[in-house]
Amino acid sequence: MRAFLATCFALTIALSNSTAQESPSVQLFEEQQTTANDQADPSASAESESATQDKIKIDAAQLQLIVNVEVAARDAGIVESINITEGNLVKTGDAIATLDRESAMASANVAASELDIAKEENENDIDLRYAKVSKDVSGKVYQRSVNAANQFAKSVSKTELERLKLEYERARLSGEQAERSAVVNELTVELKKSQMELAEVQLRNREIRSPTSGMVVQVYQQVGEWVQPGEPIARVIDLSKLRVSCRCYLEDASPESIAERATFTHRGRQYPAVVVFTSPEIDPDVQDFIVWAEVENATGELKPGMRGSIELQRRD
């Protein structure tokens, strides 16, 4: 038994010595392989370092609305109808509410009638034609009387000549007055047209239309409520394109060095983005500046307020 144990102990010592002798060789082989790999691709580490230097990753980026419009009333009045509710999609120009229109319609009707009267007076040229005829006739009568007085002494008295001259001057001035009246009538037509256009604008303002396409997310008024000019009726947002807002440290990049291309990442999914603004103002305490990028959101999967990261690129 003792002989058997001695034999096992001797074998264990021999095996340990053999392993110790082989370890330096294995370590040397691994070092040679590493050196060979580095020599085979010496630019790999340099390219990796260069790629890192060309890109700036900012972990704190947030999505914001670009189009966020409060649609307001242009005139004062009572809300007559509301055509939308929260969640409705609207297009630019869609009527979302209407104010009472009785007064505006009456004003438009009055303006239309006054315009018709002005046009009729402008087209009536009877006074102008009469003044021209009267001027011609009185002028001829006066001239004949003057000729007769010159040919035959005392054939026409001086008083009669003065009266005829006065009639001629009156007819001439009446013609000038008729011409001026015609000009005034034309100007009156233009004035009434402007008043008519103003009345139509005021009537259109009773309809409150969306200035943009998007989704209605808030309705502030109800039918029957009184609103003042500028008071909001509803809020419309557009989700088709969102803004990525972040702040970049000055030690990482300057505002002028950031390129347009960027990538926004949210929950592992990447979205192409375009940098549209880098603020020239540097925060004196933190030494950073604002960067805005825009990302397309046709599917609507991105929502304002979501957070993610953005990878910016430096200009060449």
From TrEMBL:
<feature type="signal peptide">
    <location>
        <begin position="1"/>
        <end position="20"/>
    </location>
</feature>
<feature type="region of interest" description="Disordered">
    <location>
        <begin position="24"/>
        <end position="52"/>
    </location>
</feature>
<dbReference type="GO" id="GO:1990281">
    <property type="term" value="C:efflux pump complex"/>
</dbReference>
<keyword id="KW-0175">Coiled coil</keyword>
<dbReference type="InterPro" id="IPR058625">
    <property type="entry name" value="MdtA-like_BSH"/>
</dbReference>
<feature type="compositionally biased region" description="Polar residues">
    <location>
        <begin position="24"/>
        <end position="42"/>
    </location>
</feature>
<feature type="domain" description="Multidrug resistance protein MdtA-like barrel-sandwich hybrid">
    <location>
        <begin position="69"/>
        <end position="237"/>
    </location>
</feature>
<keyword id="KW-0732">Signal</keyword>
<dbReference type="GO" id="GO:0015562">
    <property type="term" value="F:efflux transmembrane transporter activity"/>
</dbReference>
<feature type="coiled-coil region">
    <location>
        <begin position="161"/>
        <end position="204"/>
    </location>
</feature>
<dbReference type="Pfam" id="PF25917">
    <property type="entry name" value="BSH_RND"/>
</dbReference>
<dbReference type="InterPro" id="IPR006143">
    <property type="entry name" value="RND_pump_MFP"/>
</dbReference>
<protein>
    <submittedName>
        <fullName>Putative multidrug resistance protein EmrK</fullName>
    </submittedName>
</protein>
<comment type="similarity">
    <text>Belongs to the membrane fusion protein (MFP) (TC 8.A.1) family.</text>
</comment>
